Amino acid sequence: MSLLPLADARARVLAGCPPLDPTVVDLADALGLVTTVSLSADDPVPPFANTAMDGFAVRADDTATPPTRLAVVGTVAAGAVGDIEVGPGQAVCIMTGAPIPPGADAVVMVERTATEDDGAIVIVHHRAEPGDHIRVAGEDLAAGQEVFPAGTVLHAGHLGVLASMGLVKVPVTKRPTVGVLSTGDELVLAPTPLRPGQIRDSNRTALLAMVRLAGCTPVDLGLAPDNEGAIEDALRRGLEACDAIVTTGGVSVGDFDFVKVVLDRLSGATMSWMQVAIRPAKPLAFGVVDGVAVFGLPGNPVSCLVSFELFARPALRQMMGQPVLDRPRVWAVADEGLARRPDGKLHLVRVHVRYGEEGRYHVVSSGGQGSHLLRAMALANALALLPDGDGAAAGADVEVMLLAYPEG
Questions:
Q1: Rounded to an integer, what distance in angstroms lies between the CA atom of residue 95 and that of residue 87?
Q2: Is residue 115 in a domain?
């Protein structure tokens, strides 16, 4: 089988993963989702003029020649009606967030005042200007104003704004439910004692976490042995409950790769079995079965996680309607040589990136580069993209895909 360029494999995957249908979710469940309609404010925010400071509501003209003695005619707390009128020569004690009482046009912060006669008199040591420390009605949002357009990715601040508008339901693109299945006779669940030839299943734990970090809802489909019946049962459960399925293992060309046999049968032989021109993560399967996107990832731990980053994660983000599919890429200085051999493939080298004092990124290898060396993948916060050739010498510029924020 000839090697498929990375861009062609990615295009084939993305073509089968259009955005999911619109839905409506509770505001509390909308984090990370994408709006499907424009959202507008029905009412002004804030709904009434209120004070930004603890202090005294006054008529600004009364403070023209400080210090000024004013009679305190009442107190307005946050949540109160605030209907105590401020007349000439008067002031009202007011707490942050409380409504501005009628007659007042400024607030003097408490630090610029003093009281006497048990609080009946306030001495104002500051000349106030109209509007001082007053939040006017609609200053944040005007009634009828478009707040967020369709296609907005909702982060914490967005949710706060929507809560201030009184929204409890939000129209968004559906959050994908993603099943994760491990396969292989050699795999056992921790803490089961290992017999000769066995290893513990790490891929499923890592993939479930990566699905969650991608903003999707993970579903654990378990661990299936190399048995057609067990694999088919697990996949059918996933096809009934999920929008996408990620399998690991059994997608190469071995005699016991039963995942391939089962998926070919379930898909009507429409699955794509690819050998991608990358290292690690060369084998990749993808197809749509009964409307469910199915990603068949390799079984080697590092290959599995790299393949998820390159193919499954951007496809799942596209299914969510996310405008940005990929991790950011930057150029960095190789602080040590990153060697490789020519083989016609793009190498994705696990590296650790830091941000240098001179304003440039720097990378070093995070450890051994074997596709079974999971710790080096865990220590990496980026993948260096080394095109076919001999690699990068120390001091050379290399392109890297950031998996996490670099350290300073």
A1: 19
A2: yes
* Structural domains of the chain, count: 4
* Amino acid 256: pLDDT: 62
Average pLDDT rounded to a whole number, residues 230-235: 96
Amino acid at 191: P
- DSSP secondary-structure letter at 22? E
* Residue 43 in this model has a pLDDT that exceeds 60: yes
Radius of gyration (Cα) for the chain, nearest Å?
31
Tell me which residue range forms the domain holding 159.
22-44+147-173
pLDDT single digits (tens) 64-101? 999 999 999 999 999 998 899 999 999 999 999 999 99
d(CA 140, CA 47): 10
Secondary element (H or E) of residue 237: helix 228-241
Find where tokens 């048995």 sit. 227
297, 319, 341: which is the final residue of a domain?
319
Q: What is the CATH number of the domain that holds 58?
A: 2.170.190.11
- Angle at the Cα of 16 from the Cα atoms of 259 and 18, rounded to 5 degrees: 135
Separation between Cα atoms, residue 332 and residue 395, nearest integer Å: 9
CA distances from 323 to 6, 53, 154, 315, 349 (A): 21, 40, 12, 12, 27
The pTM score is: 0.92
Q: 44: exposed, middle or buried (C-beta count within 10 Å: 0-12, 13-18, 19+)?
A: middle
The CA distance from 214 to 288, in Å, is: 20
Tens-digit pLDDT profile for residues 100-112: 999 999 999 999 9
Q: Has residue 1 got a pLDDT over 90?
A: no
